Amino acid sequence: MVNSELYNIACSCANESCYTDIVFDGDSIQLKKFDILEYTSSGAFVNIRARDIALWPESTNETFNADSLYIVESAESVNGKTKVELINWTFGGETIMGADEIVQDVVVTDSLMERLPKNLPVTSVNTMVSWLKTEFLFDLGNEESMFFRVVGGNGSQDGYWLGRNWLAEVVEKRIGQTDYLVVERLLKSPQKAMNVQRGCAKIRFVDEKNAVEANPIFKAQLALSSSDPNSIINLWQRYNDADEGILKSQQEISGILRVDSFFKKDGKTCANIQNSSESIENFKGVYEALKEDYSISVSSPSVKDPLQVKNVVFNSEQRTISWEWEDRLPHERLTDVEIRIDFKPWAVQSKRRKDALDAIKSRNIPIPAITDLLNKTTVPTFDSQLPKNRIPSELSLRKAFGDNKPNDAQLRALKVCLTSPDIALVQGPPGTGKTSVIRALQNVLLTADPRHSKSVPSILLTSFQHVAVDNVASGSKIWGLPVFRFYGAKKDREQVFEGLKAWQTETAAAVDKQIDSLQADAEYAEYEKLMRSLRCAKDAESAYEIRSLLSEVLELAENENFLAQDEVQNLQEWKRRFSDSKKDETLYSLLMGIRISPTSFQDDGKVNISRLLRYYDLRRDAIVCPALEREYDRLKTFADSEPSQADYTWLHDLRNECVNQVNPEAIGSLDKTLLRMLQNYIDKTLIPNIEERVKHSDIHMMQVLKEYRESVEFKSIRNAMMKYAVTFAATTQQSKSDAFINMLGNENFGFDYVIVDEAARANPLDLFIPMTLARKKVILVGDHRQLPQLVEQNILEQMEGETEKLAELKLSMEQSLFESLWNYLKNERNDGIERTVTLNVQYRMPKKLGDFVSKYFYGEGQEILTSKNPLDCEHFVSRYKKLNGESKCAIWEDVDGKESGRKSKQNEAEASRIVERLKEIVQETNETIGVIASYSAQVRLIEKMVQETPVLSDAVARHQLEIGSIDAFQGKQFDIVFFSVVRNNSHSGFGFLTMDNRLNVAFSRQKKLLVVVGSRNMFSSGEAKENVPALNAFIDLADSEV
Fold first, then answer.
1. CATH number 3.40.50.300 is the correct assignment for the domain at 350-376+417-512+717-839
2. pTM here?
3. Which helix (H) or strand (E) element contains residue 600?
4. pLDDT for 376-420, tens place per residue?
């Protein structure tokens, strides 16, 4: 309703002092003159009483006292008059009055921003709040504003609010014990007369975060949870503080060692240390405790950056340190050398964790509701879920899975992730296709309802380990391109594009193969020659060059049907034009060759006229010479007859007139003009016509393939990916690294959606980091029935308080953030929003093993079904076949050897049996094999024995065989799995085996066959049945395989 033209007219008429001659014509009013005190681009009201018209300088209570109001719609000058279009608002009902001294908040929700019409010029919540105030409120002073509501409803402040150009649907919602007004949607104003109700109140448009934090009940809840030392956020803040305190203490204890001199011994670099033996011993103690994660830094003014060294050997008595020197800089060149443990990685990690904790605790994150869910406080939810018409159809959801056929639980997982307003948790038991769900979810998020999307959303795929990130990123392709995988600042820049390079190589090879097969075609070879000649002709610089190229084109056209007959004739005519003139012949020389006396005419007069006319005929469309065109027919008669004396005068005048009409420079450039005309014909007509003719042939296919091949050059794709990538992958820590931020751009760094895989295993302190980066939604994918995060015993001891015991504290801290949220959201939330879903169909294991895992690790109410073809479960290990030739899937290899070791256990008899079986299997089949041991000492023992067996070390080298711990194998799968239980003792000590989440991982890695290696006597006892029921039951399962 605001019109800039009216604003300009108003300004130009500001000096007019009166209004006269008002003519009413329906809703249209014509004025010759009118009074304008002030007009602003935000709009103006016209108050009509009788026939008096005035534009009000500002909005006041008096402005709205009339029974109706006319809004200026537009104005234009017509025949010296100004025509003003008005819209009439009739006031109906009592004026809505707000309560004194009470400010009424009108909430702008995050989901409203996703539903905005595309033609609304608003890009953020902050700009939306400002725009709504300008559009719908009319300032009356004293913080009061006038607003207008379309009559209808109960007379409250909700309903349709009328603005200058838009309608806002404002609804009243009671959330908890508080009433809120919420902007539900925006519509373009109908621009017609309406019955309007006035409202006068202290109105403030606010975003969700400010509306919630202004609520007194919520303030109390937030204060209570913030002071609770056992809330999730505070527990992990205490953990982080304790960790920080321990490392700072170790940093002080280790101190700095100063080098006195260097020497060489046994091929190693040795340093004489100035510090005391006690200082060296302290340094050594700290380093030995941290060396898995930290290196030693050697610094000197002689080098720009500190040198990193590992595998350091200490000799406190002799006060020396030695290491293998791999740096190119000779140690002799170093001066004033200092040696310290490099705590910088820890400092960087700690800062990221602390920043994320502080942001979450203060609700200073894009999705503040995440803080409230972590605190288990009631959150005012202004938008319960995505509107049903915004959820993609089931057909679209199924298509998102590509060639895979999704089950009902996987489809429900997509719906839960789409409809949850803030966070969604997907539990993925072993083999249930959680990676497929993550990939499908990316496809859905990037294609769902583009009508309401002003830009393509960005997605971060993350996990706490590189291997997990690689796994989820490797198979994901968005619009045919791989995910942008970030590896870290220390990696070579090209390695950032490692996944892209593999995809590019594979794609380029496939395209090259198709190109090679098509290039062998003779027709394509002729086509290439023709197009090459035409392109050369298009770029030719002389008539001589063009003649040769036209001959080639016409010769090629005789053999193939690339040119139409009329096009051949045109080219032949063009060739004749360039062939019939001498190289140095110009129109000027030919005009001057017109003979104007009998003597000279007798010599070569007729010949010269013939040459001039032939030249003109060939170039008539390029020559501008009115005299020659006018006298052409008369001049032509003298090519065959003698002129009279009067004719010689006429020839003299014609020659002079023609020369004057065409200057020598223009005449000399005629061949160049013709050349440009021919080249334009080739470029704009001939080549497009040929390309259109071959559009449905193999030739066009070849063109497309060649263009595509050029576009998939690594450099081109890398640059395009840097510019247009929408899905990124990095570890939880790297997601907030300076290198990652700089690569993507520091401005408003973050992602619309953050998807965390293996979320149940991530340390919450690391998990908080990517959660603070999500603008719209966080999606956690994991399984709390498998391995949780690891917590450090010494940190827990540091945290232990007077009122809490270590065992209780450990129990709280070992519960994953995923599990804590899962239990709260699934069992305790009462807002009606579904935020959790379990995938319940496994595709990995034979049904017998799948049912076993379901029964012993998930239990009643959470049964895991099996959907795997029994034929896909057949293996090729003859030792483990049934009598009828079918494959067994469960084996117990009875080994009665005793365990050994104090801290970490090992069982040599089990290791020997496994190596013996592996030697048989790798010579019998190429199926993949995983060997899992419940203790790290057993892993090292088996690895040593395998390396000493050539046939097995070869299997490791070609990635057929892998040995690892339970922790290392979560997320992996193999055709055949051996599980070494290790424990066998006389006191029925089962150790780690009593932890169901660890056994769950060990029992669920196989696709065809699981072989458990251990003592039958140990695990068939009553104590085993009570303490490790799954292992006890597996013996019976294996015995049933006959």
1. yes
2. 0.72
3. helix 598-619
4. 887 667 765 455 546 788 898 998 898 889 999 999 999 999 988
